Structures are given as structure tokens and as C-alpha cells.
Amino acid sequence: MKLKRNVAVSENGFLFNPETGDSFIVNPIAKEILNYLKEGYDIEKINQLILDRYEVDLVTLEKNMEDFLKMLQHNELLDR
Amino acid sequence: MKKLDYERPILNKVNAGMPDKFGMKTKTATLSHIEEHSVHDILKEFGSPVYVISEPCIRKTYRTAHKAFSTRYPRVQFAWSYKTNYMNAVCKIFHSEGAWAEVVSGFEYSKAIENGISGDQIIFNGPEKSKEDLERAITDGAMIHLDSLDEFYFLGELAQKLDKKANVALRINLDAGIYPRWDRFGFNLENGEAWHALNRIMLHEHMELVGLHTHMGTYITAVSAYAIAAGKLADMAVRLQRKFNHSIKYLDLGGGFATKNTLKGAYLPGADTCPSFDDYAEALTSALLGSELPPDKLPLLLLETGRALIDEAGYALGSVLANKRLVDGRRATVIDIGVNMLFTAFWYAHEVMPTKLNSEQTENTTIYGPLCMNIDIIREAIQFPLLQKGDAIVIPRIGAYNMTQWMQFIKLRPPVLLIDEDRKIHVIRKKESFQEFNAQENVPKHLK
Fold it and tell me: What highest taxon heads this organism's lineage (chain A) (predicted)?
């Protein structure tokens, strides 16, 4: 699962999809996840990186991650 | 090394549109304590969901309302509208402040008597009054507000049998320039029905006309309507004086004052549009003082406002049950407060407040109640922070109607707490139990 190559993510969490013309705002943790996705990390690895840095349990993170990926897919931001 | 605070990742689509000149602040308000008690502690001790009522808030609101009217008109009396909230503890607070009782059924009448109110301080309104109810009211000397001609005949017959004079007031519906016009209660003024009924009461041997009453509607934000209604009732009182040389004891202008809750579909929040008690009092009392009523014989001004006196003092405390994603990408949050215990969610866009915020991030969210029923929606769309399962939420301003119009539907009713003036918590209504509820039923022998 990888973020589309032409999707731009700015330093302050502004995201632009040139294919659809849609813009998005993401929170800092989402920006971090997007950068990991861009680098091609798999979900398991991303989860581990977030767990190491944030005060969160695995179940909560997995639930939230699934929802976030669903939203990325819904907005056509992921490579199929 | 200390780990960073976590919040769930979100993706909010930017929807560019016309700037809103009434732009509201987007910051989410939080409420962590009620009268010095932590919401978390309350939920931990009494379970979730739970209602909380603040006694200091009730008393403060009542005194503000009373002062607004009594500083403008010499004779003012409030009557607590039982249907708005008939928890005995709540009624007793209002009675201790000096309010009489306004009831609309035999059940509420019994409650008022149990709460120590004497019959001559009970206003008995409403379309349904049984034979037993009316006989009791006649004997007690309660103020019986007639709703229909059928009731007039019925009451006359009963008073005659008891050989007593019933204290009677006429409920009048009138055009005060507002919509909708309530014409289902009482007798119409403009078509002459009310005057006709008044003549008959005046000529009845077993009835004493004590008052004139109108109740124009609910959540009325146009204070001018009260001025029009007060003027019309005053004219009617003057007309009675002229024809029968009869001074009525009181004018009852009912209730209907708005609260700071926002009505569904309203463009501006209720907190910005709700008139103050002073606004209502100024319009209403100016009309009375400016009328033809003789200054030395001013009738008592009775007010039955319920909603505006209690809404602010009530809170519903609950928790997040689940977060979901709807097909169109919207967030859905399910909480354990449903329309079964928050009937007012059908007409208010209730504020739903978290107890704390980890960040300023929000998502467009639909808030559902816990019932397995499609109508159970608390908010269709609200910019809501990123709460997790188990997080506490507070819905403020729910003191009016929710503890009387609540439904035993799917779930049992939660407990009601009162925080007194010394900040002590009391359970004023126990959580309903399965045993109590089931004990009302009877299964026929052949089905056992």
C-alpha cells in the first residue's frame, strides 16, 4: 500500500491531489504516516514506529489506522 | 523517554466556498466539571449515562426571572410547570423559592399535593381532567382552567352536585402575531368564542371567574408577542369589569420563553438569539401597565414558564461507544445517550461537549445514540473532536422535558442526580431496574 507518487504533502500538513484537484488538511500524526507510506513502509512497520513514539495501545492504533487508510482510499490517494 | 500524546490520524477535505459573514468560532468547548465535581468521577460512581441537575443553577435562574418581573410589575407569581420536570426534588426547589404549581393531569396534581402545595396554589390546566380530578380540584379550591365547552358543562354539573363554587379561569387562544398559532387549547378570542364562554361562566351559580389565561406557544423569541397577548387579556379584563363589575384576580400569561439551546435549522446559535428575562418582562409588563386596567386594582400576573427556568440546570453525561466511517466518508460516533433519554434532540441541535481535548483537530461527525433504531440521531452534523471509545461527553441544557418525556424504549431509564448548594450529590431518582419494570406485567395462565 503506497501513497500515489504525484500526491504532494507540505510541511504543515496540507495535501494536494493533482489528479482530482482535491486538497486536504491532515494532523501531525497523519502527516507522519503519509511520509512513511510515501517511503514505501508496510503497515506493520508503520504501526511499530508509531507505537514506539506515541502513548497508544496496539488495538486503538490498529482501529485508527484501518480507518485512516480507508479514508485515503476513499479519496483516491493510494496506488492500487 | 516520555512518549508523545496520541490522537488518531485524520484527513479533512478542504471545501472552498463562500465565506460566511456570520462565521462562528470553530473551537470546541469542553466541560470537565459540573458544580466542582469531575464528570469522570460522576460517571465512575454512578455509571453511564446519567442525568445531573444543579440546584444552585435552578435557584439562580429562578431569582433572575422573578427579579426581572417583580421589579417592573407590583404583583407577580410564578407557578412551576410540572410537565417540564416533575422530579419531586426539582419541584420542591421551585416551591421553596415561592413558586406555586401548574399541573395538567391528575397524576401531576397528586405530585403537587405530595410536594406540600395546597389546592388554592395549584393551577389545573390541560384538556383532560377526569371526574375525580375535577371533584378534588373543586373541593381543594384549585384554579381550574377551562379548555372546552364540554368541560364547562361537566364542571358545572359536578360543582352543583357538590354544592360548591369552583374557581375557574378561561384558557384563551389568540393571535399575537406569531406562527404557529396555537388554537387547539381553550377558547378563541378573535371569533368571540372566549367572550361567549366568559359570559356563561359569569352567569353560572357554581362558578367563580378568577382569572384569564393564555399560552401562545413554545420557544417564542419574539417578545412583542407577549405585549400583544397581555394587552388583549387586559382589554378582556376591563370589559368584564365594565359589564359585570367583576374584578378578576389574575392574568396568566403562560410560558413559552426560549432558552439558549439552538433549534434545528436555526442560522444563529440560541445563545445569541434568546431574549433575556428582562426583555420578556419589559415587553409584557409595559403592555399591562399601559392598558386600561385600573392601577389600584391590578390583577396578579401569573407566569408558568418551565423550559427557561430549568433547561440550563440539567446535564446528560455519557460515553462514546464506538466510532465508525459512513459510506460517504463522514465520521459517525455512537454514544450511550439516545433519543429515549434525550427527547429534545428531535427539535434542538444540542451541544455535545467532550471533557478534554488533546488537540484542536475536528472532523465532520454524525452523532448517533445507542438504540437499534434509525431515528436515534443526536446530531446530524457537528464538527467534533477525535474521541475514542470510552471517552466521556456532556450534553448541557437538557433540564426541560427530558426527565418527563423520556421513554422506556429498548433501555431502562438512567438515574437522576442533584448537586445541592453545598455541592453534595444526591440520587433523586434511582436507575430503573428490570425487576421493577417487569413487575408491571402479567402473563396469562395459558402462556406461562
Answer: Bacteria
